[in-house]
Design brief:
2 strands, two-stranded antiparallel ribbon, 96 residues, alpha+beta, elongated
């Protein structure tokens, strides 16, 4: 059984100040975030180049996985590979 209950009083002025400050932050935060500088053409080109390299790697990994599985490797063969792009294409090295 509960013997006593204490009721805490909230100072309405302090609570209102906190709510007001939170509202101001929420209203102005998006404008601060959108005011940041946009990426330059060089930065966009670098981002695009990384994306294209990632897409090439993904395609090479997909094709290499299919080739390895078609060869029906032994259970004790290495299961990890690292790819390196060369002028002739992608070179896959097994990691023991």
């Amino acid at each position: 059984m509960i013997e006593s209950v204490q009721v805490a009083r909230v100072d309405r002025r302090g609570f209102a100040a906190v709510i007001f400050a939170a509202a101001v932050l929420l209203l102005f935060l998006p404008s601060v975030a959108s005011a940041s500088s946009k990426p330059s053409e060089a930065e966009l080109a670098a981002i695009t180049a990384r994306g294209q390299m990632l897409a090439e790697y993904d395609t090479a990994a997909w094709q290499a996985t299919d080739a390895v599985m078609a060869a029906q490797p032994k259970a004790d063969s290495p299961g990890h590979y690292i790819a390196h792009k060369t002028e002739a294409g992608w070179l896959w090295t097994s990691v023991a």
